[in-house]
Specification:
Blueprint: E1 6-17, E2 20-31, E3 35-39, H1 46-53, E4 61-66, E5 69-70, H2 76-82, E6 84-86, H3 99-108, H4 120-136, H5 152-164, E7 170-174, H6 182-195, E8 200-204, H7 208-214, E9 217-222, E10 225-230, H8 232-237, H9 239-246
Helix pairs in contact: 3-4, 3-5
The structure holds adenosine-5'-diphosphate and magnesium ion.
């Protein structure tokens, strides 16, 4: 399935925790634009697969190809520099820093440290990008507030903005709407859809309705294995998926 449309390819990826094969020979691909979602029952291995792809844990077998390059075993930081950004199920914000400072810090991640020649125009551009992100994520009015003072919905928005600040090609989101109100979830879904025209998105999500609504392609995991994949309607209609996941 090698194609220029594909930003990420996972081949035979596996990892065990003791006797448990948490991720078992999974093959999948993520396109350069649009939303690819990973769903499955609790304990299916979604977060583990996400952590394998983003470099937080190392696979015991298999490969991760990003832009056709074998990035298996790369650190999260090296992957970020290559264009793969992730947000965390557990927040990665600095609560005692302002919203603007959080964004500024995130956008500086890619600037080479201590390089005197680093052009001023680049820094100006970074500052402009921070202001653009504030506006885009409806956080202009909260720019000087501490991240810890934001509402839950605002914090989740800031997390996505932080993940995007480095200008990635692939954005990985693990349960971005966890703990959100219905209204905030709807807003987040809209935002994810909008963003997916510019950046490939890999979404791990518990909320099936949200997944059906925003995804272009869905991969279903069950007990560490890929059970099915396809367009939302096909996945929903798949009897195996219904049995394993929707309990029908
Ligand atoms: P999901 O995100 O789909 O709910 P996880 O990937 O978190 O599932 O977990 C898959 C399985 O691996 C579960 O049985 C879980 O208990 C187990 N698991 C996850 N992380 C670890 C770990 N660090 N050590 C041991 N077992 C783990
Ligand atoms: Mg999980």
């Amino acid at each position: 399935m090698e194609s220029t449309d594909t930003i990420l390819q996972v081949q035979g990826l596996s990892v065990s925790f003791g006797a448990l094969r948490a991720v078992d020979s999974v093959d999948m691909a993520v396109r350069r634009s649009g939303v690819t979602s990973l769903i499955g029952p609790n304990g299916a291995g979604k977060s583990t697969l996400f952590n394998l792809i983003s470099g937080a844990i190392r696979p015991s077998a298999g490969k991760v190809l990003f832009n056709g390059v074998n990035v298996t075993g790369w650190s999260p930081h090296k992957l970020l520099r290559a264009g793969m950004a992730r947000s965390f199920q557990i927040t990665n914000l600095f609560f005692d820093m302002s919203v603007r400072e959080n964004l500024r810090l995130a956008s500086q991640i890619l600037e080479p440290a201590g390089k005197a020649w680093w052009p001023l125009s680049r820094s100006h551009r970074a500052a402009e990008r921070v202001e653009e992100q504030l506006e885009r994520f409806s956080l202009q009015g909260r720019a000087d507030a501490l991240a810890g003072e934001l509402s839950h919905g605002e914090q989740r928005r800031l997390e996505i903005a932080v993940a995007l600040a480095s200008g990635p090609q692939l954005l990985m989101l693990d349960e971005p709407t966890q703990g959100m109100s219905h209204g905030d979830t709807q807003e987040a879904a809209q935002l994810i859809k909008t963003l997916s025209s510019e950046v490939g998105i890999l979404l791990v999500e518990h909320d099936v309705n949200l997944v059906m609504d925003v995804s272009d392609h869905i991969v279903v995991l069950s007990q560490g294995k890929k059970l099915a994949e396809g367009r939302p309607a096909d996945v929903r209609a798949n009897p195996q998926v219904q049995a394993a996941y929707f309990g029908g």
